[in-house]
Design brief:
The protein has two helices and seven strands. It is an alpha+beta fold and about 130 residues long. The protein has a domain of about 90 residues. The strands form three sheets. It has a three-stranded antiparallel beta sheet with strand order 2-3-6, with no helix packed on it. A two-stranded antiparallel sheet has the order 1-7. The radius of gyration is 23 Å and the shape is elongated.
Length: about 130
C-alpha cells in the first residue's frame, strides 16, 4: 500500500498566545469612524431615505461604491481599514458610543417627505382584495 504525505502524522506547534491574539483582534465598527458620512438618497418624487457611505471610498460591492442604510450602519464592520479614524477619545468612550448608538438609530427604514416629515408607510404598501 502506498502512503501519501496526507496519511502521515505531522507535528504542529500550537502557540496558544498567538491563537488568542488572532481571535482578540477587534473588528472595526464603521459607524464609529470619522469617515462614515450620512447622506440622502432621493427618489424622483422628492422623498428620500437616509444612508451612510465611507468618505474615503473604502466600501465597495464589486466595482461599485457600496452604501449602507442608516438603520443597518451599526452592524457594518471590517477587520481592518487603512483610513480608520476613531471618533472617540478612548476605549471606554468608544464602547459607550457604540452601546448608545443602537438606541439612537431607527430600527427600520424610514422614508421622508421632501419637507423632512416621515412618510406614512401605508401609502407605499400594495393593497389587494386579501388585505
Amino acid at each position: 500500500m502506498r502512503h501519501t504525505h496526507a496519511d502521515l502524522p505531522v507535528a504542529v506547534d500550537f502557540d496558544e498566545d498567538f491563537e488568542k491574539s488572532l481571535r482578540a483582534k477587534p473588528r472595526i465598527r464603521c459607524a464609529e469612524c470619522q469617515h462614515c458620512r450620512q447622506f440622502q438618497e432621493k427618489a424622483l418624487s422628492g422623498r428620500y431615505i437616509l444612508k451612510c457611505r465611507c468618505a474615503k471610498g473604502r466600501w465597495f460591492n464589486g466595482k461599485n461604491e457600496a452604501t449602507c442604510e442608516l438603520h443597518k450602519v451599526s452592524a457594518r464592520r471590517r477587520d481592518e481599514c487603512p483610513d480608520y479614524k476613531s471618533t472617540s477619545d478612548d476605549e471606554q468612550d468608544k464602547k459607550s458610543f457604540l452601546g448608545d448608538l443602537e438606541n439612537f438609530l431607527p430600527i427600520e427604514r424610514h422614508i421622508f417627505n421632501p419637507d423632512g416629515s416621515y412618510l406614512d408607510k401605508t401609502e407605499t404598501m400594495v393593497w389587494g382584495d386579501d388585505t
